[in-house]
Structure formats: C-alpha cells, structure tokens
Amino acid sequence: MSSSLVEPRLEANSTHDVPSNTMQEQSEPPLSKNKLKKLLRDQKWEEGREERKELRKEKAKERKERKRAARNDHHHPPSDSIHEKRKASAEHEAPATKRPKTVKPIQLPVSFIIDCNFDDLMRDNERTSLASQITRSYSENHKAPFQSHLFVSSFGGLLKHRFDTVLAGTHHSWKGVKFLEDDFEVAAREATNLMKTNPTEKFAGAFQKVGDEQGTEATTTSGEVVYLTSDSPETLTELKPYSTYIIGGIVDKNRHKGICYKRAMDRGFKTAKLPIGDYMKMASRFVLTTNHVVEIMLKWLDMGDWAKAFVEVIPQRKGGVLKEGMTTPNEPSEAITHDQAGNAAEPSPEERAELAKDVCPSGVDDLATKTPQNTEEHEQ
C-alpha cells in the first residue's frame, strides 16, 4: 500500500520537471548580430594564439641575427662586394640628400627707406597691399647676395596694427631691417650713422670699383639722401656708397598725385626717378610695386647694370623690351620722353585697361604698387 502511494508521487514529480525546463529555455533571448560577431572574433583570436606566438619568436630571432651581423661588420670590414654595393648606393642617393652650399650675403654701405607716412590716405585693401609689399621687400633684401640696410619709417596707425595682429608680429624677428615711428628724415640720419660705423660692410658687387679707386675713408663723405619719385626732373644714374634712397610707401591708385615729390621738396631733400624710360620701351605705363623697386636696386648692386636689372624684374605682361643698343648703363640712348612712354601723359584706352590691374602710388609711377590680388597675378 505504501508503494502504491510513492509511485504516483514520483510520476507527479517527473511530469512537473518537464514544463519547468521548457520555460527556462524559452526565457533566454536570442544572441544579437553584434554579439555573434564578437564571439566569432574571440574564437578566431584564440585559434590564432599559437600562430602569433611562433611569429613573435621568428621576429625576435631575426632581430638577434641582425644585431649579430652588425657587430661582426663593426669588428670586421665588409667584403669587397658588399662594400662596393654600399658605395654605389651612397653615390646614387647623394644628389638627392646633399644640401647646396649657402653663400653668405655681403652687407653693402647703402640704405633703403620705405616711407609709410600715408596711412590715413589709403583704403583697407591698399593698406593690405602695402603690408605685403613691405614683407616682400624684406624677403628680397634678405636673400640678395649684396644686401642693403632696410628701414621702414613712420611705421604706425592701421598699417602697424595689421603687422601686429593679422601678421602675428612676425616682423619683430626680421633681421637687417628697422621699423621706426619717426619719419624718413630721422630714419635717414640713423641710416647714415649706421653705415659709417658698421664694421661688417664691404665694397663688393657694383661698389667694388669705387672702393678700389677711392677707398673707404674717401667715400664716407660722398653719400647722399635721395627721395625716389617719377615727378622729379632728375634721373638716377647709379647708386652710391653710403647713400640712402627713400621709396614712397603708398598705394592710392594715383588719387594723390605728386604727394611724394611735394613731401621731399618741402623738406629740402634731393629727388630722382629710376631711369626706366632711358632703357626700356614699355607697352604700358611704368607701373611697378614697391618691392619691385627694391628688387631692381638690389639687382643693380649685384650687376651694376640698369638694363639687366629692369629686364629681370619688370613683369613680362608689361611688354617691356630694351631699346636698341641698350646693353650697358653707359651707352647713349635714343631716348623717348617719359610723356611719350606714358609716364605722365594721358593713357590710351588700351593703357586704361592695363592700369585697371594696377594700384599706382601718388605721382610715383616708377614706384607704383598693386592690390594683393594683382600682386599674386604678377607672381604667377
């Protein structure tokens, strides 16, 4: 009787366990795709464990062999074949890795001043252009084989603000240039004193002949201060040692014609214009950027030849060509006047189209400047 009672109880228990397991299996959610991918990655990583271990051993063995070979090469010279291969490889790579020898520039006893006392006469885009031209003037002088002393006078106002802010004050690290708040007259006196007391200056380039003939002591008193302006009746024939040449730093599309000439005459300074018309025939007026004027004078200091300086610097789009027989600065010219060359005469319609590309400083056609866009166009 007791056994009959037990058996049903066992059957009840067994029938109770089956639905419980079935419910547990149904409660587990299926694995997501990301989970399955992660499991597969882990599985592949584990499967490759031994392979990675062998690979690390092989790499360690190769490193040891390379170190052993390097030690052997150090104690024993390489064989002729290996030595020849290394020598040939070095010779083959030499042209690409060898740095060109730098020639140290020579400081000459001459100074250029960029007169920036026209800040209130320029528009924002013109002031931006002038800042660019000052930067390029410094760059041309810095890399020239024969350098001048460079000054920027009347440096203030919005032009100085642009250098300090937009240009991040990089001009403070420039070498061989001085920025002065004083005007060009004070800068000229400082330039004269600097040239007479600077022991690093040499007579070289275009000044070599002068130094050989007169000597340093004789030429220190022969210097002059000249304000360059195309309105001047005088033409500059050469640059002289211990002299200072002033360039009007203004971009105004010729709104203030003659202002540089008047400024120089009111202060009693000598004036002159570059001899472009004596050497070149131009398809348009003589319109150059301020940095071009600096570069032309630096080229003259190098070669002593205005004709070559003009040809190398004046933009080709100006259509400038040397006059017949103009190969040296001393040869006579069948000169056309500056009015005939378009320097002061009323421009033709074709010239007006050309002038629309340029920004001319006040009455200084030889020293004309350009907007940043046009300056970039010239470089291209």
Short description:
With 380 residues, the protein is of the alpha/beta class.
Characterization of the model:
The structure is a single chain. The chain is of the alpha/beta class and 380 residues long. It has 14 helices and 8 strands. Strands 3-2-1-5-4-6 form a 6-stranded parallel sheet, with helices on both faces. Strand 1, helix 5 (124-143) and strand 2 form a beta-alpha-beta unit. Helix 5 packs across helix 6, helix 5 packs parallel to helix 11 (290-303) and helix 11 packs across helix 12. The longest helix is centred in the first third of the chain and has 27 residues, at 49-75. The radius of gyration is 40 Å and the shape is elongated. The N and C termini lie far apart (116 Å).
- What class would the helix/strand composition place it in? alpha/beta
Number of helical regions: 14
Mean pLDDT across all amino acids: 76
Shape: elongated
Alpha-carbon distance between the termini? 116 Å
> Biggest β-sheet, characterized?
6 strands, parallel
Tell me the β content.
5-15%
Radius of gyration: 40 Å
